[in-house]
Amino acid sequence: xxxxxxxxxxxxxxxxxxxxxxxxxxxxxxxxxxxxxxxxxxxxxxxxxx
Length: 50
Prior knowledge:
By secondary structure, the protein is mostly helical. The chain contains one helix and no strands.
């Protein structure tokens, strides 16, 4: 009987995890930037300046 050790991710799995994390944070930042632009820029464009 082999003693079961807690599964440790291999190097490849760790790399994939890191890539997924960085992608997610990039997408999150893009969405946040877009919503900021939508909040601040859109009203400025839509409201006619006197």
